[in-house]
Write a structure and sequence with these properties.
With 252 residues, chain A is of the alpha/beta class. Chain A is built from seven helices and ten strands. Chain A has a single domain (8-251), classed as P-loop containing nucleotide triphosphate hydrolases (Rossmann fold, 3-Layer(aba) Sandwich). Helix content of chain A is 33%, strand content 25%. In chain A, the strands form two sheets. Chain A has a six-stranded mixed β-sheet. The longest helix of chain A has 17 residues, at 180-196. Chain A is globular, with a radius of gyration of 18 Å. Chain B is an alpha+beta fold and 379 residues long. Chain B has two domains: 2-44 and 254-377, no CATH class; 62-231, no CATH class. In chain B, 51% of the residues lie in helices and 17% in strands. Chain B has helices at 2-12, 14-51, 75-82, 148-151, 189-196, 219-229, 238-252, 255-284, 286-294, 299-331, 343-369, and strands at residues 56-60, 87-101, 107-114, 127-129, 140-144, 159-162, 165-173, 184-187, 208-213, 233-237. In chain B, a hairpin with a 2-residue loop joins strand 6 and strand 7. The chains are: A alpha/beta (252), B alpha+beta (379). Bound molecules: adenosine-5'-diphosphate and magnesium ion. Adenosine-5'-diphosphate (ADP) is lined by residues 17-18, 22, 24, 26, 44, 46-52 of chain A.
Chain lengths: 252, 379
């Protein structure tokens, strides 16, 4: 599993944000590979550059320098429309605040992700219902976001992210707005998506409850990757210990 | 899904939708009324010219309109015209304002139209009582029923005086109204001459000659030949005379300019209102558009949502606007200047509404073009 070819590869990414006096170097040379079938957690303190990295991996932001390779193809020099095309073909997004369309019901919220891909009509509607059932919302198909709980809304968002069968799913703090039970449910769902559907899932989080679901944890601090741990092969529910802290202690 | 999203965005904020629709509705009604008046006036002005059966009009040099041609064309000129190759018939016609003395006292101005039906230049139309034959009786005239009150008479059998001559109503028409607000009085050619013949010199003169061509004759060749032969006249095609009359009444008087100006103002106000509401709606839904963009929608997909919103507003606004415009039209049917709506005008108004809404969408589209999809993470 670990030596599969990466679907998404970031090489030495530098990103400057802001202008003039407010200029910040949010990423200072980050390299990262995502392979299919794995749930990777990106952890780090607030302001460490997690969201920036996720945006760049998701082809929403372009790096100041460095290279992103998506499905073997470099994104260097691509324009906004070409990047949008890459996003809709390869990447599913999940956001902290769900970002559902308040005027569309659950099925329609999922269908819109298929619609931008040109998948329309009955097959699209059937596919939308299918993924909603997959995430356990078969009984909420016609509900509008304001009639769904936070956990249900995030599950609609997960359904929307996977409806078009992307090879990569990127989630920014997907559990931050959820209570413990719903947080666990969403993380279990993400792990299942990685395993059963053989997708690369990367979730940004600083929620320690999510650790148990990870195949791999990448730690970022101040725009740099400072550590990476992997769940040992064959272990079902590993305690991934915080190696970063140990290393720091050792260094001190 | 584009239409679904546009529809939901539109109906999401009912108050804004109402403002949008009122804006479009206001525009449509204003433009429909202005152009309806314009069309109504044009029709009235050119009605008499359209109804004549002629290829060319010979008028006194510089005659401005149907009612203002004077009584100057001579029988000699008529014979010259008849002798022109390609000319089949030259039908004399008289048209002039005259004073109508009401039987009960007081007077008003009328437009006397004298022509002989058997010449085939102008067949009677819209007759509701009496026949053209009846008008050949001594003193007989035909007037439009809608002017009976203005003329101070009851109907068939009523008598009055035009200039110095006695007249009796023998036939009535329905809906032949005059833009000058001077009612038309129809009578045979020679009686018209006699009625208008106050100084005794116009007994054989005419206001117009209606020229009918031989089959196969070239209109422009004959027109130039006639113009060459007949000094002191204008030889015009039907279309040229129509345009000249319209120019006289609608543009020299400024009435047409005012009507068209009013219509333009309506379009402008409507566009501004729709642009405003569409822009604010787009701003309200900007997060959703950013999400769409993050999900990988193309720029044109988002533009289509906004255009669909504009288009839906246009269709709804147009429908409501037309209902009101048609109501006004109905209410105006008996007024001195009834509005006119034609399928062409209705279609043009729809095209105009769509165009107006499309223009209105420009600012909203410029707004979404600037969306940074990265904002989806910072909420
Ligand atoms: N648009 C921006 N302009 C300037 N600085 C920014 C912008 N977005 C983020 N930053 C800065 O970049 C750094 C990384 O931000 P971010 O990636 O959002 O961190 P995280 O998601 O880990 O909290 C922070 O210092 C933040 O203040
Ligand atoms: Mg963040």
């Amino acid at each position: 599993m670990t030596n599969e070819t990466p679907v998404l590869e970031a090489n030495d990414i530098v990103k400057e944000l802001g202008k003039g006096a407010g200029k910040v170097m949010a990423l200072k040379g980050v390299s990262l590979k995502l392979v299919p079938g794995e749930l990777t957690l990106l952890m780090g303190p607030s302001g460490s550059g997690k969201t920036t990295l996720l945006s760049i991996l998701g082809c929403i932001l372009s790096p100041t320098s460095g290279d992103i390779r998506l499905a073997g193809q470099s994104t260097l020099g691509l324009g906004p429309e070409q990047l949008a095309a890459l996003r809709r073909q390869h990447i599913g997004f999940i956001f902290q605040s769900y970002n559902l369309f308040p005027t569309l019901n659950a099925v329609e919220n999922v269908r819109i992700a298929l619609d931008v891909l040109g998948q329309k009509g009955y097959p699209a509607a059937a596919r939308a219902e299918e993924v909603l059932r997959e995430v356990g919302l078969g009984h909420r198909l016609q509900n509008f976001p304001n009639n769904l709980s936070g956990g249900e809304q995030q599950r609609v968002a997960v359904a929307r992210a996977i409806a078009a069968s992307p090879s990569i799913v990127l989630a920014d703090e997907p559990t931050a707005a959820l209570d413990s039970e719903n947080g666990h449910a969403v993380m279990a769902l993400l792990a299942r998506i990685a395993k059963e559907q053989n997708r690369s899932v990367l979730a940004v989080t600083h929620d320690p409850r999510t650790l148990g679901y990870a195949d791999r944890v990448v730690r970022i601090e101040d725009g740099k990757i400072v550590g990476e741990e992997r769940r040992p092969e064959g272990v079902n529910s590993p305690e991934i210990t915080d190696l970063t802290k140990k290393r720091r202690k050792a260094n001190a | 899904m584009i239409l679904t999203l546009a529809f939901r965005n539109l109906f999401h904020d009912r108050i804004r939708l109402a403002v949008t629709l009122v804006g479009i509705l206001f525009s449509i009604v204003l433009v429909a009324v202005q152009l309806g008046l314009y069309l109504g006036s044009s029709r009235m002005i050119t009605n008499m010219i359209e109804k004549t059966n002629s290829d060319l009009w010979i008028t006194t040099f510089g005659a401005k309109s149907f009612e203002e041609g004077g009584l100057l064309l001579t029988p000699g000129q008529r014979h010259q015209a008849l002798a022109t190759p390609g000319v089949k018939a030259v039908i004399p016609m008289v048209s002039a304002f005259a004073e109508w003395r009401k039987p009960g006292g007081g007077s008003t101005r009328v437009a006397v139209v004298g022509i002989d039906a058997e010449d085939g230049g102008l067949q009677p139309w819209n007759l509701i009582e009496g026949t053209w034959d009846d008008i050949r009786a001594p003193d007989a005239i035909a007037v439009d029923r809608s002017y009976l009150k203005d003329l101070g008479i009851e109907g068939i059998g009523s008598t009055a005086q035009i200039a110095i001559g006695r007249v009796r109503v023998r036939a009535l028409t329905e809906g032949i109204r005059s833009f000058t607000q001077s009612p038309y009085v129809f009578t045979p050619l020679q009686r018209a001459r006699n009625l208008l013949n106050m100084d005794g010199e116009k007994g054989d003169k005419s206001t117009f000659f209606l020229v009918q061509l031989e089959p196969g004759a070239n209109l422009e060749t004959v027109r130039l030949a006639l113009q060459e032969r007949l000094e002191g006249t204008d030889v015009l095609t039907k279309a040229q005379f129509r345009d000249r009359s319209l120019g006289q009444w609608l543009f020299k008087t400024g009435a047409g300019i005012a009507l068209i100006g009013g219509a333009l103002l309506g379009i402008l106000v409507g566009t501004v209102i729709v642009a405003q509401t569409l822009y604010s709606s787009t701003k309200d839904h900007i997060n959703e558009f950013a999400t769409l963009r993050a999900l990988g929608s193309s720029g044109s997909y988002i533009h289509k949502v906004i255009l669909a919103q504009a288009g839906l507003s246009a269709v709804i606004g147009y429908t409501l606007g037309m209902i009101i415009a048609l109501l006004i039209l109905y209410l105006s049917r008996n007024s001195p200047l009834p509005l006119v709506m034609t399928p062409g005008l209705a279609f043009s108004l729809f095209a105009l509404t769509l165009f107006m809404c499309a223009i209105s969408a420009v600012s909203a589209i410029m707004k979404v073009t600037k969306i940074d999809p990265a904002t989806v993470f910072s909420r």
